[in-house]
Amino acid sequence: MMRYDNPFDMEPLLPSNEAPLERLHDLASAVITKSARLEGYLRSHTRKSVAGLVRSMNGYYSNLIEGHHTTPAEIEAALRSAREGTRPQKERQQLHLAHLQTQELMEESLTTGRYTPTDIPSQRFLSWIHKEFSRRLPESLLVVKHVKMDREYRVIPGALRDFDVNVGHHLPPTNASVPKFLDRFETYYREHVNTTAKSLIAAAAAHHRLVWIHPFGDGNGRVARLFTQAWMAANGAAGGGLWTLSRGLARKNEEYRERLSAADEKRHGDYDGRGYLSEKALSDFCRFVLETSEDQIDFMTQLLDLGELENRIMAHARFEEEKKGLPAGSAILLRDILLRDEVPRGEVARILNVSPRTATSAISELLRKEYVQSDTPKGTLRLAFPGHASAFIFPNLYPAGGKNDQES
């Protein structure tokens, strides 16, 4: 079985068959419409807090896809920079933190203009993502073992692989030809990064083709998912950060890998497109990604329904009040902040009908336990969502009991 060395061997780069393409267009349009509606569910400060929780969830599920299961407790420890436990546990925590920090930097780079939407398919952007992720990992996670050749290779953050690899039954392009494949990848896809439905189909197709090229020695799956996240944000389909594709891919991990593998295959006869690879399999992969995206947006839309979210916050806070875990009146205050997006500290005494001194004490306790946040010692109060409360306030956001459950 020969390795690929001609960039046109990865054609087609986008499905073209009219019937499946119409179905893909309808799905992509639904994803864009529902995502925009979801973004409007919460006001700006609360949306930003929830987006932070979803970003952490994105890292959790992206690592789960790669076979690295991190418990919610380990995630909280990682966020506190208090890595603990066995070496494998510490490594999993570092993987999670590296993904989280890289996504934050990626989002910032696109917001500030360091990278533009048309930069997203470029080797420069992809290598930057890989570098930011990999440089945060311990040396033990930067070694790749090539079983068939009985050799080990060190992965250099941001550098393209300088060795050949096997990925299941797929033989990615020769290491010497990877730059040519990435040039073709960028030249074709950069024109498709826009706010249209077709752009979203292209994002799904590009996700597969990037994994197919396998440009780095390791970390290609994570880079591809962060790349797709960036593209969806540029497309306007990221819902303000309130949903993540990785959760859906992790929950359908077996099908995700099967679809990736199927799209690696060569064309099946004259009715399977005009490229070297199967157009039908690429179209099926795109449909899978778009359907998974719509499913996850629907899930978060139901979860973030304002009335239901208010009820869960109130119920959780009252439970904590009863066992003296939160100060009296916390439920009322948290509901007020949810509905108003932020509350001046000076109004807390009136809201709780207590003295200013008691209000100050309640604020301090809620800040310490990370139920609220503030930019300055006298600044307005905004909602925060501590990790230990997320299972109650956002049920099924993470798998129940730390395992991968089967609900949407």
Structure description:
The chain is an all-alpha fold. It folds into 2 domains: 7-303, Orthogonal Bundle (Fic-like fold), CATH 1.10.3290.10; 306-400, Winged helix-like DNA-binding domain superfamily/Winged helix DNA-binding domain (Arc Repressor Mutant, subunit A, Orthogonal Bundle), CATH 1.10.10. The protein is built from 16 helices and 4 strands. It has helices spanning 18-39, 44-65, 72-79, 87-112, 123-134, 178-189, 197-213, 220-235, 245-251, 253-262, 279-303, 306-322, 330-340, 348-352, 356-368, 390-393, and strands at 143-146, 151-154, 372-373, 382-383. The strands form 2 sheets. A two-stranded antiparallel ribbon has the order 1-2. A two-stranded antiparallel ribbon has the order 3-4. Helix 10 runs antiparallel to helix 11 (279-303) and helix 12 (306-322) packs antiparallel against helix 13 (330-340). The longest helix is centred in the N-terminal third of the chain and has 26 residues, at 87-112. The protein is elongated. The model is unreliable at 400-408 (pLDDT under 50).
Kindly state the number of beta strands: 4
CATH class of the largest domain: Mainly Alpha
Helix proportion of residues, in percent?
55-70%
Largest sheet: 2 strands, antiparallel
CATH topology of the largest domain: Fic-like fold
What is the number of helices? Answer: 16
Mean pLDDT: 92
Q: For the largest beta sheet, what order do the strands appear in spatially?
A: 1-2
Task: Name the CATH superfamily classification of the largest domain.
Answer: Fido-like domain
Q: What fraction of residues sit in β-strands?
A: under 5%
Uncertain stretches: 400-408
How many structural domains in the coordinates? 2
